[in-house]
Amino acid sequence: MKFSDLSSPAFFGNPYPFYEQLRAQGALVPLAPNIMITGHYAVIDTLLRDRRVGKTYMPSVVARYGESGPEQPVFQALSRMFLMMNPPVHTRLRSLLMAAFNARQIDLLREVTQSMADTLIDAFEPGAPFDLVRDYALPLPVNVICRLLDVPVEDGVKLGSAASHFGNALEAAPMDAVHLAAANEATQTLECYFKSVVEERRAKPGNDLVSALLRAEEAGESLTEDEIISNVLLLFVAGHETTSNMLGNALIALHRHPGQLARLKGDASLLPKAVGECLRFDSSVQMIVRTAFEDVEAAGHSIARGTIVFMLLGSANRDPGQFEKPDELDIGRTLQGRLLSFGAGVHHCLGARLATLELETGLGSLISRLPDLRITNLDALQWRQRNTLRGVESLKALR
After folding, report:
1. Residue 30, Cβ neighbours under 10 Å: how many?
2. Per residue in 117-158, pLDDT tens?
3. Domain boundaries, the chain
4. Do 382 and 393 contact (CB within 8 A), yes or no?
5. Separation CA 23–CA 40 (nearest Å)
6. Which of 9, 159, 299, 336 could be cross-linked to 42 through a Cys-Cys bond (beta carbons 3.0 to 4.6 Å apart)?
């Protein structure tokens, strides 16, 4: 196996046959010196919950881009994000942000999310084609994250392209020179914008996430200006990419399984289970990376200290050792064990509750308000050229 195996057109279009082959090769498969890859649920679930396993971001950059990789602006920005940190620094930053993502705060966003879903659906003209990605799946979470950061939605939309280019840096397979240059340029664009936002909040703080990070700095958390900007940038990009792609993936899965779609239309109480099953069946986040800080054992397999492990969440979610008939979409499924689409352990996705709310609202609103919705390009989908974050470029539709 090599990194390029994760970047073929066939893989981008449908990675699941590859995952099946990978699982058959063993629980842990060599990818490069001191680098392993796994698609087994038991191994990934164990490692994600082991405190002896964590993040070593820059070594993984060196492994993919060479010794000069860490000098690139995009990787510098990523290295300052709490997503790439370990306890105790990660713990302090995460605890700070959790206050904005707790159940009470997220519930307050339910009305905002529903109102935005209705507004977007109202704009679809009967008989006129529209794009569910551009006109619905993307603007829905963008509006919510802009609300949390208290930045104008129109700015969020304008920065969407930069967010996408920046997101390419999270891919496991190395970017080519053109994409790396675009990611660096996007980083500078986003950092410049959010630097001005931070300056505004210093002068006039509010109840938004940017102000919360600034208050933490003042309370002695030792956050530098660059760290604040990078973590605001992280929240903004995550708010764009993961949920919008997942909403698109869920719509594709349901429309490719009309029996399950009809079942959901007939019983709205199945919506939470349907969202969970779509997250399992074709998650937008397909891969994460961890490093063993000590010699560890996972599901009976030894991993040496310093080993970088690429964990294929998309494969784990289809592991027949964990899920019965894993390649079938079943919205009534009772999941065996924990769903790994949001990760697990100390790095379990901070925005999981918010993403679930957005997915349930976004999917439920389309089904209830547009029961005859038809996706017209299901047989000619253009999947993004990514292996970590899975989604399509467009979903052409008619109401």
Report:
1. 14
2. 999 999 999 989 999 999 999 999 999 999 889 999 999 989
3. 3-398
4. yes
5. 6
6. 299
